Amino acid sequence: MKTNIYRLMGCGVMAAAVSxxxxxGCQDFFEQDSDRIIFADGGHLNNPTDTxxxxxxxxxxxxxxxxxxxLLGEVRGDLVDVNExxxxxxxxxxxxxxDDSANVYNQPRDYxxxxxxxxxxxxxxxxxxxxxxxxxxxxxxxAAAKTxxxxxxxxxxxxxxxxxxVTEPILLSGDLERDYPKLEVKDICxxxxxxxxxxxxxDIPLFxxxxxxxxxxxxxxxxxxxxxxxxxxxxxxxAQWYYRYISMRxxxxxxxxxxxxxxxxxxxxxxxxxxxxxxxxxxTSEGYAADAELISLIACPTGMAELNYSQLRNIFNSTNExxxxxxxxxSGALTDLSESQVYCxxxxxxxxxxxxxxxxxxxxxxxxxxxxxxxxxxxxxAWRPSQTVLKxxxxxxxxxxxxxxxxxxxxALNRAGYPRFAxxxxxDGVNDSIVRARILPYCPTLEDxxxxxxxxxxxxxxxxxxxxxxxxxxxxMGLHSRGSGWTEFNEHYAFPxxxxxxxxxxxxxxxxxxxxxxxxxxxxxxFEGQRFYDLMRVALRRNDPAYLAEKIYARRxxxxxxxxxxxxxxxxxxxxxxxxxxxxxxxx
Length: 588
Known about the structure:
Mean pLDDT: 89
Distance between the termini: 15 Å
Structural class: alpha+beta
Number of strands: 14
């Protein structure tokens, strides 16, 4: 087998075959003639122009993971379902037939292409090099490479359960034969946390030439640390890292408030015939701003003929390219959950009412009908049903946004022992007044109070709607209000009260609030690739694989559980059935 050694050159990656050696095994992982891996020539990165070229090389390799980062986290969940047009590869994943090495989505070598490029940069960048302003040349890119590596490893281990862990660049043929340790998610997270903490405060690199604002092209290190700590069960630290991102994203003495965009019935129309939408536009915008919802994305090619063109628009939407036949649709479980929410209205005359359950359109939470548009289209002289999921209207693939960070901070706070803090993020929104009035009184110790007070949301920068509904500068409300109206007045949405006789009140509250967070994640993040991993995280945390299994079996609704059980041959109560198959050492 031929080994090609690659060098970073020009504006992208240029291959230069400089040697050939005989190797055995690993063909699929390296696939040398396909340029999946950038190999190095043994030199060091010590020229300032290397910063751009090296980062572009990593960003290009990330494109191969873009669709997978969404589909593996969504298709295995309960919020989307297959249909008669679904590809065999996606259908197999949806039904947990995950042992097919020919499945286009079961290609671990693509993850290692990113990891090896990051390992090379981390090992070879001269981090001591300074420019004429005495600033280190490579530190921003060094931190970015470490964060990209962490994101890729987390995606990889969540897909496969246990993976070879490689932290040095594979440069020589002998490196292919090494016995790399195989680690599970917690062990990988612990290593990566230690690796990222020293570079957590480095700024992201900025340069021109991308199709998007380069500030969107990077994974924020603080968010990545929050995710790693969340999976590792280090909940206090996870909450603090998410908060550090929120509080520092726009600089000190600034805010990154949750905002007030949503889909809502017109407040003073009692017949519930018309509603307004400031929600979907917020999710489709790809501009960078201090109050933008979008945090980061993978910038993908815009032409269908280009390598790594994202197919998500054709998978979720009716398009001319797929003959108006999307491969995935909202599930019965998602529709049922959305319609089961109680929409609360608060008129300008201070009257509280609830939307009728029998509304023909727009029942319950309004986020789903805002995002998913259904109709019909004339194609090839015949009318066909059409579906548009507005979250997939771009060539790029979004990976982090504001609501995701707030939800995960709430999840971490809840499991750290502060369910009231988590609940307020859902119901009312938080600022320091809310914290003082509704969270601190329930802190049992001075240590708890000190921890909570470490999360400061100053009233002049985080203006909460529930405290002054007439204010004109409101920028904060409960996340549930994005689709369910005025949650702060909703008597059907309340902090859980433990029944008499429950011995551990706090544990009861944490689990009930966690259930609310899981539902909110479904309502807010549907189709974005988070659902299966959210269910997995809770199931592992509770040591209850059936928690995940029962959600998946109810994908088509409670009354069709038996149907899903018969279709899914794997026993989902066995967590080993959750993961894609892995063969060989690295790749297969």
